[in-house]
Amino acid sequence: MGVLKKFEQRLEGLVNGTFAKVFKSEVQPVEIAGALQRECDNNATIWNRDRTVVPNDFIVELSAPDYERLSPYSGQLGDELAGMVRDYAKQQRYTFMGPIKVHLEKAEDLDTGLYRVRSRTLASSSSNHQAPGASYPAPPGHPGAAPGGYGYPPVGAPPMPSAPPPGRPGGYGYPPPVQRPPQIPSAGGRTRYWIEINGTRHQISRPTMVLGRSTDADVRIDDPGVSRRHCEIRTGMPSTIQDLGSTNGIVVDGQHTTRATLRDGSRIVVGSTTVIYRQAEG
């Protein structure tokens, strides 16, 4: 069973208690959990063959209405999300330099249903466990997080590329992913399009591709949280994705939306399944 599914089931076990009000929020906890997984993937730093360090301190920025709904349960929700990050890191063989913490903050510039994730690496001098998903002690002389905090690799980490991409909304710089999936070679100078689901590639050979649980969909996704005809990808300049009136909607690069522009590497969450959109030019 996937880490996100286990996380969702743990929360469902609390529905009959006071924590149930969390599920009335426009932003669902499982969406935040998926964004934290992507934050780990996108900010992973390879130190050596056996050690890939990911952030351990996260801030989830919410719109004022969503924050008001979730803040009374921020401690319990933060603990559940931290546990999910720990499980995911163990699965991916990631390591941390300190304890995992997830905080909620209010952002006045966000509309209801939207959220933003920031992260940083904070070292803990007391940690001496060295197993996947565990915290690591800081290197000699390590003062903790790098100046500027969120969005920066830990001090002592291998240098990042000299020209990182611009920061995402919120003004915090984010390092690029450490590794990129291999590109499908293109012929004749034309653009090739495909998606990746659980390591399997699905070539987009027509202008549109429908994703859903139905056998009539171009790509069938066996996920109870996915509608029969969930969403449609349209290739072009630029490519776009459109929700087709699904029950649970779509999340693109951490934003819950009904329509979005896609770029190479965009991450689409439908139900509890992550779809990676890819394109390459000849």
Tell me what you see in this structure.
With 282 residues, this protein is an alpha+beta fold. 18% of the residues lie in helices and 26% in strands. It is built from four helices and 16 strands. The strands form four sheets. It has a six-stranded antiparallel beta sheet, with helices on one face. A five-stranded mixed beta sheet has the order 9-8-10-11-14, with no helix packed on it. A hairpin with a 2-residue loop joins β1 and β2. The chain starts with a helix and ends with a strand. Residues 209-257 form the FHA domain. Keywords: Phosphoprotein. Residues 121-188 are annotated as: Disordered.
User: Poorly predicted ranges (pLDDT <50, ≥5 residues)?
Assistant: 15-20, 126-188
- Overall pLDDT score: 75
Query: What helical percentage do the residues reach?
Result: 10-25%
Tell me the Rg in angstroms: 19 Å
Task: Offer a concise description of the structure.
This protein is an alpha+beta fold.
Keywords:
282 residues; alpha+beta; six-stranded antiparallel sheet; five-stranded mixed sheet; 18% helix; FhaA_N_sf; FHA domain-containing protein; FhaA_N; FHA_dom
Secondary structure layout plus pairing:
Elements lengths: L2 H10 L16 H14 L2 E4 L2 E3 L3 E6 L1 H7 L3 H19 L8 E6 L8 E6 L71 E6 L2 E4 L4 E5 L6 E2 L10 E4 L4 E5 L6 E3 L2 E3 L1 E4 L4 E4 L2 E8 L2
Parallel strand pairs: 3-4, 8-9
Antiparallel strand pairs: 1-2, 3-5, 6-7, 6-16, 8-10, 10-11, 11-14, 12-13, 12-15, 15-16
Helix pairs in contact: 1-4, 2-4
Organism: Streptomyces thermogriseus
Protein name: FHA domain-containing protein
Pfam families: FHA (PF00498), FhaA_N (PF12401)
